[in-house]
Specification:
With 157 residues, the protein is α/β, with parallel strands linked by helices. It is built from four helices and six strands; from the N terminus they run ββαβαβαβαβ. A six-stranded mixed beta sheet has the order 1-6-5-2-3-4, sandwiched between helices. Helix 2 links the parallel strand 3 and strand 4.
Amino acid sequence: MWRSELRSSPSRAPIVVGVDGSGTSAQVLLTAAEYATLFDAPLIAVQSCSSSHIGELTAPNLAYWNTHESVKRDRLDSAVDAAITRFPALSIRTLITMNSPERVLLERAELAQLVVIGPRDDTRPQAGPILGPVGRHLLLHNPCPTMICHDPIPGPR
């Protein structure tokens, strides 16, 4: 799914990809890396965790955040390594932050040419992909095109 009009040719402005650590994150990052390679643009991989997930910023919660951030960093590094292996000339920067995904992605989108995210991480049976709150927010407020990558359709191409 793609929201927005293409108003100009691809530029050297970065492509921003939101990575949430779910099962589809690595594929979403590879899709964004492919576009960044095609556009000859840098890629910024963003992973965020709202402070509401850890509660009040007390010493025990900060210790939890440090552990949580370390796990997120390992997952993100693994996905980035796979993208670099596939696209060795690609410039990838990573950012892990404690802000809301919507806020971080919109801030980065101000200077980006494209924001790429995955579908809502939802394991319930459903008729089709469901947009989560981040996807809905970006589709309504993002200043640049937004691509929402769903699982690839199995079968021959």
